[in-house]
Amino acid sequence: MVAFDPAVAPTYPAGQVVTYNGSTYITNVTSPTGTPGTSADYTLLAAAGATGVTGAAGTTGETGITGSTGVTGTTGATGVAGSTGATGADGVTGATGGTGVTGATGLTGATGVGLTGIVAFDPAVAPTYPAGQIVTFDGSTYIANVASPTGTPGTSADYTLLAAAGATGVTGAAGTTGESGGTGSTGVTGTTGATGDAGSTGG
């Protein structure tokens, strides 16, 4: 018994049993022609049975091993860039949001060092200066960095220079020579001197 094959059928001998579409046939002649079921060269031995009731589903088999990753294909050519679409219409302006709640007032900052009235530096009074006292010394102006500063402005770290003394100005031009004074008045005539002693008599 063999499955019917039209390419091999010309070699079948008489009496060859073949199957075709679920039915079984026998060749009546050598080198039969045509197809079993339609050709007189074949006789039906057993027709295909009716389709049976579908059997219950079998148990799912185990998952097979994952196959290896295939070779990455070549990158396709870049498509032509599409034309730029028209600009859309401007949207409607949204309503203005409500005013937010006012935040809490921040903490008051620490009191900074203030500026006290300007005084001329006096080493005898300096121990009473508060921080921030402004003093002048040798033409420059300083501020006390601490209370009761020590030392002298310009050399002590207890003072910071605010404004340096200006440079000495250029010597002015010589003034014009004054006019000659008038002749003084004649002095008072002195008193006559005392008469001298008489000379000795000649010999």
TrEMBL record:
GO cellular component: extracellular region
Bias (Gly residues) ranges: 178-187
Region (Disordered): 173-203
Residue ranges, compositional bias (Low complexity): 188-203
Chitin-binding type-3 domain sequence ranges: 1-45, 118-162
Pfam families: Collagen
Name this protein carries in UniProt: Chitin-binding type-3 domain-containing protein
Species this chain originates from: Paenibacillus silvae
High-level lineage: Bacteria, Bacillati, Bacillota, Bacilli, Bacillales
